[in-house]
Amino acid sequence: MNRFAILAAALMAIPTMATAQEKTDKPAEPVFTVVKANPVTSVKNQHRSGTCWAYSSLAFIESELLRMGKGEFDLEESFLVYNTYMDRADRAIRTHGDVSFSQGGSFYDVIYCMKNYGLVPQGTMKGSLYGDSLYNFNQLDAVTSAYVGAIAKTTNKTINPAWRKDLSNIYANYFGELPTSFTYKGKTYTPQSFVSYLGLNPDDYISLTSYTHHPFYSKFILEIQDNWRWAESYNLPLNEFMEVMETAVRNGYTFAWGADVSEEGFNWRKGIVTVPAATTDKDNSGSDAARWTGSNDLNNVKAADAKGEKTITQEMRQLAYDNWETTDDHGMLIYGLAKDQDGKEYFMMKNSWGDSGPFHGHAYISKPYVAYKTMNIVINKKALPKSIAKKLGLN
Q: Which of 7, 306, 326, 354 is within CB 3.0–4.6 Å of 45 for a Cys-Cys bond?
């Protein structure tokens, strides 16, 4: 073969070699190995409602009962939501509408409810759900928000106290009557005696966060609209905040996780959540899951993997909160740790969007994302490392 034929052959070979190289360089799909997975109950579906706070906090309590050896329970979201919405309506009216009345809530709502109203097992309340099998608040919220808003902004000099009964009747029709007593496995309980039967102590649970606009190792009221009960969170430096979460999971604890899920890196379609170093445009459309993920198809697996993640600092976290880039979007449950084929560790998360996504309602959350976009967590204070609990005055 002459030199020109060799050159032509070489030139013809370049595209094939480049294609082979591209295939080699293409990132492989992550393959996860469980490091630690604490027991959780089944995935639920909040459907067309803004009640992630109820589903995630009760999922946390259910996992606490598993950890405590109490067995598997399915607790009633309707009981929690009914009581919470009545309380929120009262607060909105007392403040002339300055406290927002909406579908949202906080993890503290379940702690408050558990302490003041109790809990009940699933199936105790028999509402209509307006003919739906799952929550659909499109009609319910339109009616109740208009009703509460009209009273909160009234120009009347007096308010007829009958509004509470009227509003309660709307909720009773949808969720079912609030029980004063019920039978569970052949025994009769009140909602509060049921909490005692479960062996739960509301005072065991605390909220933690990490922001610099308040002193570390102190408590402050997290400034988000759905924290309408003005619950306090303990404030930790970011490294200790992350230490609490990882140590807790490794020692058998779960925690309720409140986070921003509107970021491009929250890729529910792939079940993997990261903080990509580079971002692209995204599409946002409506339904609780779809409005955060930008797709109505929760099982669609299309978006490309990020090639790297940002290194998160305390300053980045604070700036994102101050600029409203980090928003109080969604409540979930963190219950485990896993690693990919490169040894990178992720938190394991359980959601309340039903059996959707490639991991059937679960996802893997990178540690940078947790560091960057966690709003707050609620956790059993016994899960804290002793040195950190001491700094917070909890031991």
A: 354
